[in-house]
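Lecture notes, unit on protein representations.

Consider one protein chain, 299 amino acids long.
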Amino acid sequence: MEETGMKEVMGKAEVLIEALPYIQRFNRKIIVVKYGGSAMVDEELKRQVIQDVTLLKLVGFKPIIVHGGGKEISKWVEKAGMEPEFVGGLRKTDEATMEIAEMVLGRVNKSLVQLVEELGVLAVGISGKDGGLLRVDKKYANGKDIGFVGEIKKVNPKILYDLLEKDFLPIVCPIGMDDSYQTYNINADDAACAIARAMQAEKLAFLTDIEGVYKDPADASTLISELPITEARELISEGNIGGGMLPKLNNCIDAIENGVSRVHILDGRIAHCLLLEIFTNKGIGTAILGEKERKYYHE
């Protein structure tokens, strides 16, 4: 074999060896992936995300996908002649919008099932209605009534445990019911966080449209690779976190305080971001760690 060809082969071997400690550490562990943002709109990125999650499954992890679909919902709301309306970052959801949202999320859900099964892994798409997975109360935005938007009050994870036990990959869309069995739309970040807590997941990964958490949001060079939970609280209290990152970081802290070992915030616009963060020494996003956690187990 030529020298250049041998170097290429050895490089591939080194990548696999680098991944080995992570495969060993997280084998048979539950990982919840919140899938949203641009990675859901770009068809190539969508395929790459599904490849990543399928690979996690095939090397022994137990992944669960929780997906959003906000951009797709807005598109269909506009097609129906209505104007999407948001209050405090939450979609105002009247009866007609709720009907569209459930239809669109169901369609997205089954398209993801199809992509997973094309790669040889059996998947099952469900919503928070199935098996009583997500029970909600009505949610308000700064005291304002925003319609059929749910605040999760209870997670019954039995259906997810059953699916994992039978070797299926669960794909969850964030629709739930209240005690009167009324349907509600749920923020996908909230749903992923609640499911990760209930399942005592080892990891929760958010695919977003930003690189991660910054010390200074105006300076891209201040990206934080590892963020202990104490420092995450300090960043919030100092007022350095704002916009859409604030509720996301609060969700991360809440997940860790309730048993999730680590939470990753990743740029879903980067090809194979999940594999790069989970299986390489340096990663590419921000890993938020519990008090006793270290990122690099083999160092």
